[in-house]
């Protein structure tokens, strides 16, 4: 049997560290990363001021005054429902085809380890880079409000001191030969609507009930959802709209009725009813206008709303030729013969916090010919795709870090 590539062995060990929510073991992952950095001769520290450990690695450039290149990855992963997996999801199991099954194989422990291997190769080969190269391994990407990851880190002086010129973070697997690169994301707005209305006996015609009011607003919002759905699916083929180009809106929370623990009071018309929506808005949509739209939808007396997740800003990275980071990224991909398809990321990653500071960021995971299985059961990555990903990053990262000012 062929000897396993050492980078794959390290990757499989990292997959075994339990950084799954709701109780990610960030100390164990920080310890693992620090030990690897030490072994590979990479400068590293654990930054703790945000409340959870962030591992920062650094390769000093020949001109440290230039804006740096940041490789950011999150170390946390979403939970895995054991019964739905064919293999134990935190075992780093590899089958005879070289497919590695574990939570985080795509999202995004692969990229964590590929960045680490790139740093290793740069140090090992004594390759000199013009700009400082930083690697940050952050917690809490997978949760919304209350996270102690990138959202908080970008507000610290420590982050400002990195003087980041460009950030590379996660993208998505691509099922085809082509690779996707993300230059923006949709803003995640989680809207919680509360309706209050008249109560009374369930046998009577009660007017202006909370549920009625809530249903009217829900119907308006679902009508908008249908328009967006149609513009994605029924548009001209040439338009080639992708999920990231339209607004999605899903009713994900619904709550009403007098609940008595194990039963409901069916004959009591409740005074309150609530609905929660996960709305994702493309960066081309004016967020002030969209807020007005939500206010209109909820204008009826007795309705109010709050945000469980909100952002008033949603910057994107412009992919024109004036953006030297982009032209360098693109030309280095051309040089190694990989085809890029630029898209808007349909969900949210840490890149949004970077872009909202006015710093360009690309979401790029070097995974092609692989089904998109992030957050899904039986998430896997083939070892050869993983190894090739390191080579692909080696074709891109040094060029970016050597980019002329
Ligand atoms: C708003 S914080 C939640 C972030 C999460 N990210 C991914 C990639 O699933 C999401 O988009 O739902
Ligand atoms: Zn992720
Ligand atoms: Zn994720």
Automatic annotation (TrEMBL):
Chain ranges of the Peptidase M20 dimerisation domain: 184-302
Positions annotated to bind Zn(2+) 1: 74, 107, 170
Pfam families per UniProt: M20_dimer, Peptidase_M20
EC number: 3.5.1.14
Keywords: Cytoplasm, Hydrolase, Metal-binding, Zinc
Active site residues per record: 76, 141
Gene Ontology molecular-function annotations: aminoacylase activity; metal ion binding
Sequence positions that bind Zn(2+) 2: 107, 142, 375
Coiled coil: none
GO cellular component: cytoplasm
Superkingdom of this protein's organism: Eukaryota
Cofactor note: Binds 2 Zn(2+) ions per subunit.
Cofactor(s) the record lists: Zn(2+)
InterPro entries in the cross-refs: Aminoacylase-1_M20A, ArgE/DapE_CS, Bact_exopeptidase_dim_dom, N-acyl_aa_amidohydrolase, Peptidase_M20, Peptidase_M20_dimer
Subcellular location: Cytoplasm
Main localisation: cytoplasm
GO biological process, one term: amino acid metabolic process
Family to which this protein belongs: Belongs to the peptidase M20A family.
Protein name per UniProt: N-acyl-aliphatic-L-amino acid amidohydrolase
